[in-house]
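INFO batch 0412 | record 1 of 1 | parsing
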Amino acid sequence: MKTITLLALIAAMGITACSKSSNSSSNYYVKATIDGINVSYTNYTGALNQNYATMNLFGYASTAANADGINILIQLLRDNNNTNITTGIYTDTANYNPTDNPNELPDSANNYSISYFNTNEANLFLQQSGSQYISNGVMNAANSTPFTCTITAINNQSVSGTFSGTVYFGSVAKKVTNGSFHVAF
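INFO prediction complete | emitting tokens
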């Protein structure tokens, strides 16, 4: 499941990157402080509504496949009643995916009994120096919140908000603070 989501994410970034030329307007940005170092991406930014319940926000240094950048994926996975992503807080408080355990089956209401399963998720992908760090690398997030994204404004032209959390590449963790974005659809 994570592989399919990641492949869809990469495909969406490629399509969006190709459809948006070097939009060097400084009006659009994705920026954050990563382990105390400020980063800002203003040239290759965008947002894509992949369907009514999935939004992809990004900012990259270039269109190269391994370019440094930040990507935020928000998904309303279950019980969303065809809900669009709107203003609000999207938090990945649980990173256990029941598909990782083929013996775990949903109950008659299609709910999982796993206490760490999150029906709505927000994930952060950080690309730095050829390594991809992800927020959903922690399997038990009972005592922490790896990633939170707050959408403060959204219309048919752009989306704005803030984000923070922790991303992982294997056992290496990076703390992301002061994150903010204003990107065009």
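INFO post-check: The chain has one domain: 2-184.
INFO record closed
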